[in-house]
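Write out the 3D structure for:
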Amino acid sequence: MKKMVYQIPGVKPMPLAVGAELYLEELYRFENKKSMVSSSETPSSVIQRIDRNSFHIRLDDSFRLPLYHFLVNDRLFIGKNLPPFLAVGADKIDPHYLIELEYFGFSIERKSLLKDVKMLFPADDVVISAQELIWLDDDLLKHPGLKASLVKPQSQGESLYNLLPAVATSLFSPFDHVFYAQFSQQIIACEDPILEVGKQSLPKNFGFGLNRADVFNGAHKSGVVEGINLKTHVSKIKRELETGWEATGREQSLETYLAEGFYYPFTLFQLNILAAEAGKEVRLVDSEVQRDTADAIFTMDDDPIVNVYESFQRVFFYGNQWLSRVWFFIPPMISAKIIKRQYKYSSGEQHICIYALTLDYLLRFYPLKVGNVTGD
């Protein structure tokens, strides 16, 4: 079994003697070396072999590079992108991740789209029982290149619509806001190696809200998806978050607690995925400047091919069947009601429409397993 794993191109065993350390920054290769601010002259984020059966991962609080880990058969796989993990058995979608993303805007417990593959955030300090450490190169699984223009862009909305597949591929996650497509343009245009993003400029809707929940409740076929009772799971997460907040003595508001402890770290991780592709880094900063939300990027009057509302309805006919018939149930009459509810809730964000489109791209172009159905 070991020989089969080692023979996969891009799978690199990292032998470490007991007590030895490996600087994580040294595993990253960027085209623009000088932009590696997090790992410049004094790398400090390490993996150390504690003994023959465990590894200690310590990330500095300034570590801004995307990093994932996956444990199977006493092997600890680590890598900076999610797609390579498909080649070593992590090919199932985590439905809990999707539910948490839908109803809260972030995942807890460092979940990712792939079941049992966890994110590592700045300042994380974890000990993992494993006998082998294996680094996964990007070459392990080539992405299908979802960068072709869907239409010849004539407007800002059409240009951003064209970016949805590419950004979904980079994040390897559905996302619910046009902000991420806008940011992907911004990071390319930025000449500095570090891009500071004001917290006030991030999407505002996170944490459980009845209006947000109503939108997704309307899209799900029933109260149970993939054997998970939606109401029970969402209530459980909501209770856990509130309990954690109460344990702090309620010194902050619940919104601030969720933002600082969950939403900002999760969002920063996603933004740095996009930044790392350009050899850059993102830092979240406090800012009093409010993002201008006067004009919606996508509107109900957009041309059909670049209308996210109509595209949401087309998913039922032409998209991934598991998404449109099992996870959601969105035939035109039902999706029309969801769109009206979404538009009333947040006409400038269209999060369920963008969310469904980006998840559909991933399910149709990658060999992801969902329930008992393999992505079409």
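Confidence is low (pLDDT under 50) at residues 1-7, 30-36, 145-150.
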